[in-house]
Design goal:
about 260 residues, alpha/beta, 5-stranded mixed beta sheet, 12 helices
């Protein structure tokens, strides 16, 4: 059915054979070779997480659920500035051993944020295809236009195309589809990592303050009013129809069950 359409961009699984072959020559491939032996959900979460400079805060980057904002707060803890990264803050696959040690360390606070699937998808849709403001927009725009998306077209119709696009991506495999529409239970490795703190984005400030406090740090919102957000999308006025909500419930059935939506 989809053979004549451009493929939907996906994350690439680790090539175990290549990683093992090149591991004697490259630290990057040595890390990949080790990570490839971990459970799949850990491979995903250890590719998209952050560990604070002191090893006391572990956070999985669940796309479109305050992940960019939390990352900058954790970097600010180390540097005093709201930057994307810092050498002393661990991000990326090469640090997977540190992440594995952190999730086993009772002194490390593991915390995560989820978001109602409808709100999360509306935010993603607007960020990628309405605002065209995400770095991956260019890669996805051609494939979604080939499936009927019209730039500047009717929002409701375009959102239907987007949901069909997600359905096709899910049908090709949940694990390696784009993390912005990958189920949240995979993004946070629900079946593999135990979190001391978790909750909906509506309780974000409370959860972040509690995580920082348990890790022995001060108020993460010190010096500001707590309203600062990064990578915010438009679309607050877009109303999802009842039929579209039913489609989202089917696409993200386990997220609804696990997180009480």
């Amino acid at each position: 059915m989809f053979n004549d359409l451009p493929p939907i961009p996906r994350e690439r699984p680790i090539d175990r054979r290549k990683a093992r072959l090149l591991s004697p020559l490259s630290r990057r491939y040595r890390a990949k070779a080790g990570l490839a032996d971990m459970p799949l959900q850990k491979q995903i979460v250890y590719s998209h997480c952050i560990l604070s400079h002191d090893g006391k805060l572990f956070f999985p980057k669940n796309a479109k659920a305050a992940s960019s904002t939390t990352r900058r707060h954790i970097v600010r803890l180390a540097t005093g500035q709201f930057e994307r990264d810092a050498p002393e803050v661990k991000q990326g696959q090469r640090h997977w051993r540190a992440y594995e040690a952190a999730v086993r360390d009772p002194q490390c606070v593991k915390f995560c944020i989820t978001r109602h699937p409808v709100d999360r998808l509306v935010s993603t849709f607007c960020n990628f295809f309405v605002d065209e403001g995400h770095p991956s927009t260019r890669a996805h725009m051609g494939p979604i236009e080939a499936r009927g998306y019209l730039r500047g077209g009717d929002m409701a119709r375009n959102f239907d195309v987007f949901l069909a696009y997600i359905g096709e991506a899910h049908a090709e495999g949940l694990i390696y589809c784009d993390p912005h529409w990958r189920p949240q239970y995979i993004n946070i490795a629900h079946d593999e990592v135990t979190y001391e703190l978790s909750g909906d984005i509506s309780d974000y400030a409370k959860i972040l303050r509690e995580a920082f406090a348990r890790a022995g740090h001060g108020d993460p919102f010190a010096g500001e009013d707590g309203s600062r957000r990064f990578n915010v999308s438009s679309g607050g006025d877009f109303e999802v129809s009842a039929e579209q909500r039913r489609k989202i419930e089917l696409l993200f059935e386990r997220d609804y069950t696990l997180y009480g939506y």
